[in-house]
Each structure stands twice: as structure tokens, then as C-alpha cells.
Amino acid sequence: MVFLKISRRPGAAAVLALMVWGVSFFLHFFWEMAQVPFFLGMAEARHWDVVWLCTRATLGDANIAFGAYTMAACVSRDWFWVAKSWSRSTLLVYLCVGLIVTIVFEYWATGDGQRWSYNEQMPQLAVTGTGILPLAQWVVLPMLLAYSTRWMFLGWLVSKRTERE
């Protein structure tokens, strides 16, 4: 990617990509499991069926998060933006991509797609019927992801420097 600053450090770029996706998967899996009681039929489902459904949802979430990170990197023209000072525009793109994808997908999945339904405990947006918990997921977790990935990546860079000494 010529337009992103990764050409001089492809190994570090790959490590950062794995960190973004891996940490995202970890965070989203626990969120998906925590919001199970707010979906219709999940309380009655077999345990491993719920785990499998949440794992599949988490795979999608991790890919959405990675896409949001990539879009923010394109805006900042720097793959390593998370390890530096964050500009408002980069952070806004990063957060909005996940939120927009979630709103569109949840609207489809609970409507025409008939993928899942919320139970009466799920608070919903009046306009779209999108659940508040999936929206909160894309405000809270991307920020946790950014801070934890920054911490991990900077620690990895320090450990690489001390190995050379």
C-alpha cells in the first residue's frame, strides 16, 4: 500500500493487523455472550448453539472492526495511527464505520433478513428499531480496542528494540 505508511515496516504492520483483529475478536466475543439474554430464543437454546452463534457474530464483528481500522488508516494515510496522537477525523471515521455498518446490518437482520429478534428487554432506537446494546458495542469496544492495541503495539516495539541491544 503505497498511500499508507507501511512500506518500510511490513513486519510491524502485520503484527499490528493481527493485534487489531485478535483483540477485537476477544472483546466482541465477550460482549456478544453478555448480550445473549436480550435476544429472542437464546435463553432456551443449547449452550453450544449459543456459543457457536456468538462466535459467528464475533467473526463478523472482528472483520467490521478491522475494516473500520483500515478506513481510519486510509483517512490518516498512516497504518500506525493508533500508536500516535489521534486526530478527530481519524477517530470519527473509525467509530462511524462500525456504527453505520451496525445500524444497517441490525436493521436488515431484524427486519427483512429475519436473522434474529430482540426480546422485550432490549432497548431500541425508535426510528430504526436497532438495539441500543449493539450500538453501545460499537462505541465502547472500538475505544477499548484502540487503547489496548496502542498499549500492546508500543510494548511490542519496545521489546523489539531491547532485543537488538
Report how far apart the termini are: 31 Å
Which percent band covers the strand fraction?
A: under 5%
Structural class: mainly alpha
Number of domains: 1
Enumerate the spans where pLDDT stays under 50 for 5 or more consecutive residues.
none
On the 0 to 100 scale, the average pLDDT is 91
Key structural traits:
165 residues; 4 helices; 0% strand
What does this structure look like?
This protein is an all-alpha fold. It has one domain. The chain is built from 4 helices and no strands. α1 packs antiparallel against α4, α2 packs antiparallel against α3 and α3 crosses α4. The two termini are 31 Å apart. The model has no long low-confidence stretch (mean pLDDT 91).
How is this fold's topology laid out?
Elements: H1 10-34, H2 47-76, H3 88-110, H4 132-164
Helix pairs in contact: 1-2, 1-4, 2-3, 3-4
In short:
Helix content is 67%, strand content 0%. The two termini are 31 Å apart. The protein is an all-alpha fold.
